[in-house]
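Figure 2 data, in text form.
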Amino acid sequence: MINGFIDSNLDLDAVGIKKTSLLVKNGLISEVGNNPEKSLINVPNDLFVVPGFIDEHIHGSNGFDVMEGNYDSLHTISKAILMDGVVAYCPTTMTMSKDEIIKALTNINEYIKKNPLDTAKVLGAHLEGPFISKKYKGAQEEINIKKCDVNLFKEFEDVCHSIKEVTFAYEENGKELLRYLVSKNITPSIGHTNCKAELLKEGIEEGISCATHTFNAMSPFLHREVGTVGTVLLSDKVNCELICDLIHVCPDAIRLLYKCKGKKIILITDSMEAKHMKDGIYSLGGQKVIVKDNAARLSDGTLAGSILTMNKAIKNIRDVLSLSFTDAIDLATINPARNIHEDKHLGSIKAGKDASFAIVDKDFDVKATIVNGEILFKKEDYSWLR
């Protein structure tokens, strides 16, 4: 474990990039800005220490899927995403049978209790379905879709005490579920939805605070009915997840989203098991997925998650929008941390927060990932990183 000063170009909270030092003690950031005569780690001048990335929406990686519901699958995913600079994430479930969802959630809960220290940290589950719209089901199986049901959700909650976010279709009897989520400080996210504008405005006033993979699997903007897309673009109360692989959403749609939402964008990967793997045949939510040309699709052509890495998502949005280095980083750090109520511990480099960082170059290529003061990934055998 690192216990000492790190000297580097640091992406500091409310400051930006600054050449200075931070002190790591017992897995936390003890102080920032004190420049000692000698540091434990001196990061080269062409690299940057930034807050570790957070992925609030991910289904799998490295050949494994969250819905497999066993320790080894979750552990492999948690290890694999370290190479992308991800220090914390929300394993995301799919619309499958009740028993399969309970199995996956039980496994997430047990994994959190075991608290392995050699991987990205599991913050809690993101429940994507089964409370979604059949019309905008995307790559989810229709047979298992259900109307919103607080009692069923409580069954899920009984086996997983750390559900951080729920994607649901508000129009599917969602008012009671929404109020329950708000009462439990769980992030309610509108997604896989056919919600019309006027109803969604009501839901936003009731507490909907996020949109799941904005533009994808939701009622579109029309000139007489702005739908889910138009309503979330207009609302200052809604954060917007974005899959920035330039396949799910085109550059002009990304520009429109940024023009409307600014820093309320949250980068996600929505990645499935084929991330970090070769092209081929895989599965997602019990359905066959063909991975080819950087896209994952069902046999009918429907996009089925992605194979996007978080550092690539950051680079893509920086390049499309001509963002500053630090503004792009915010979309994968402090923004998701705030959205799922983890900003007390994660999302920025500030005294008292977790010592969880990514060390990257100017194009976000990840050189190392540090979680709670432990160096868990190194791209090369750097002599300066020990």
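Caption note: DSSP finds ten helices and 22 strands in the chain.
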